[in-house]
Amino acid sequence: MAVKYVLKLYVTGVTFRSQAAFKSLKKIMSENYKGAYSLKVIDVMKHPKLAEDDKILATPTLIKILPLPVARIIGNLSDKEKVLLSLDLVAVR
Amino acid sequence: MKKQTNKAGQDNMDLQALKESEARFRSIVLWSPDAIIVTDAEGKIEYMNPAAEGVFDRKLESFIGKDFGLPLVDGESTEIDIFRPGKDPGAGDMHVVETEWLNKKAHLITIRDISERKRAEEALRESEERYRVQFEQTIDALFLADTQTGIILECNRAAMELIGREKSEMVGQHQRILHPSEERDGRFSKSFKQHITGETLVETKIIKKSGEIRDVAVRASTFDLKGKKVILAIFRDITERKKSEEALLRAAQEWRTTFDSITDLVSLIDREFRLVRVNKAFAHAFGMEPKEVVGKTCYELVRGTGESWFSCPHKKTVETGKPNIVEFFEPRLKIYLEVSTSPIFDDKGEVVATVHTAKDITQRKEIEKSQRLSQLGKLVADMAHEVNNPLMIISGNAQLSLMEGVRDEEVKKNLKIIFEECKRAKDIIQRLLKFSRPSRGEIKEVDINKSIEAVVSIVEHQFKLINVEIKRNYLKDPPLISIDEQQMQEVFMNLINNASEAMPGGGAITITTSLEGDFFRIDLKDTGCGMSEEVKKKLFEPFFTTKEKGTGLGLAVCYGIIKAHNGELKFESELNKGATATVLLPLREGGVERSV
Question: Interface pTM (ipTM) of the complex?
Answer without folding.
Answer: 0.89
